[in-house]
């Protein structure tokens, strides 16, 4: 009967000869790959509003939950409007999607748009066609029942 024993190879930085073994190289490459993956840019995870808050049949509105930031009663977040057909008519600034940075006063049920960016592709991809800054301190609009803004308010503020 043969007794097989495995020698334990420990990969230590101080022992160079051990790093020449295939097992240590594999561990090293695995660690480097992991570090490269966690350092890569993160794509937004857009979550669509419920169908009852999609107020226009040619668009779908999304929120990126990872961008929701609360400062007292005011919440800042990113939204995306993805159009089913190209917008902008025959102008050179035609686009398929728009990302928005918005703020909502959760207690007062008021909205404002801070900035926007139109994209040639769907879901915020492709070339940036135009950008804009919108907010003035006093430019807030009320949330109206049954609108996209109500869906956004419920998503970022919770049903208060």
Q: Regarding CATH, which class of the largest domain?
A: Mainly Beta
Number of structurally distinct domains: 2
Counting DSSP H or I runs of 4 or more residues, the number of helices is 2
Described by strand count, sense and barrel closure, the largest sheet is: 7 strands, antiparallel
Radius of gyration: 25 Å
If you average the pLDDT, what whole number results?
77
Shape: extended
Helices, strands, pairings?
Blueprint: H1 22-38, E1 47-48, E2 59-71, E3 74-87, E4 95-105, E5 110-119, E6 128-133, E7 141-142, H2 148-157
If you had to describe this structure to a student in words, what would you say it looks like?
This protein is of the alpha+beta class. It has two domains: 1-40, no CATH class; 47-157, Beta Barrel (Lipocalin), CATH 2.40.128. The protein contains two helices and seven strands. Strands 1, 2, 3, 4, 5, 6 and 7 form a seven-stranded antiparallel β-sheet that branches. The longest helix has 17 residues, at 22-38. The chain is extended. The chain starts with 21 loop residues before the first helix and ends with a helix.
